Amino acid sequence: MQTNKIDFMAKRRVFFAISGCIIAVILLSCLVFGVKMDIQFKGGALVSLSYQGDVDMNGVESTIKSSLGSDVTVQSGSNSATGQQSVTITMPGVETVSNEELDALLTSLNDQYTEAGFAQLETQNVNATMGREFFFKCLVAVVTACVLILVYVWFRFRRIGGLPAGVFAVCALLNDLIVVFGSFVILRIPLNGNFVAAMLTILGYSINSTVVIYDRVRENRKLMGNKATFAQLMDQSVHQSLRRSVNTTVTTCLALGVVCVVAVVYNLSSIFTFALPLMIGMASGLYTSLFLATGLWVEWEQRHPAKGAKARK
């Protein structure tokens, strides 16, 4: 058996403590800063304005917030077919926006940017009840994905104790989802469709890394038999998967980092608020796949050796 320099499984409780501290910080951030929800989940008003030429979007955003309130979200965009540039303003929780408020906003913008020609394109109101229903459906989608992942891992690794493997893989995924949620809270990004997309993407990405390690555990069990303890078996599998997992995550995060830079340069806030939390979630997925899911499984095996041996028969 290969001798590894670092005994990761001996340090598993340190990894448990790190995860616990991260979750505690996220929960504290929720209590201190609160959780912002976008119009898609909370309901509210949405206003689209058109303009021409180049404008300072930071200045535009400042003017809009001074006129309509600091809770609004401002996103810029353009129509690739017509070339028309636009600004989309979302006001979560607002039942409607009056014509007087819009007229005052347009006057302020056109006074500040005389050549931009700001004009109203459309105004929409999203019912709060519909927003809550959409949020509930998104939660159902995430929970369903976790359940299906549990069943899949349980069946695929049934010969080496598939149920605890699936349970602890899902525990690691939940940790990743909490980290993604925390990144939205700490960065003050409202929860919206990007939040759900990032959550579901992380579920698929992180479980793939965990399954790779579990595959190594299954192969090493055949090769090593009972010559090694389960902790040694798991540690060997983690070391064999370490370089592959790190390289995959680093290259993916580098690509996402480029996307973040481009989004900042071109003020594409909708892309930035998806790519950055996703990059944070992928880093968390690397950590939990290598150390949390594996460490939890080893802890369970050491506390219930008879059940683990029976499950592998």
Précis, in short:
This protein is α+β, with helices and mostly antiparallel strands. Helices cover 69% and strands 10% of the residues. The two termini are 23 Å apart.
How would you describe what is shown here?
By secondary structure, this protein is of the alpha+beta class. Helix content is 69%, strand content 10%. The model has no long low-confidence stretch (mean pLDDT 86).
**Count of beta strands:** 4
What is the average of the pLDDT values? 86
Beta content: 5-15%
Q: Which structural class matches the secondary elements?
A: alpha+beta
Largest sheet: 4 strands, antiparallel
* Range of helix content: 55-70%
Write the layout of secondary structure elements.
Blueprint: H1 12-33, H2 39-42, E1 44-51, H3 57-68, E2 73-78, E3 85-92, H4 99-112, E4 119-126, H5 128-156, H6 162-186, H7 193-224, H8 230-265, H9 269-303, H10 305-311
Antiparallel strand pairs: 1-3, 1-4, 2-3
Summarize this structure as a short list of keywords or feature phrases.
elongated, about 325 residues, about 70% helix, 10 helices, alpha+beta, four-stranded antiparallel sheet
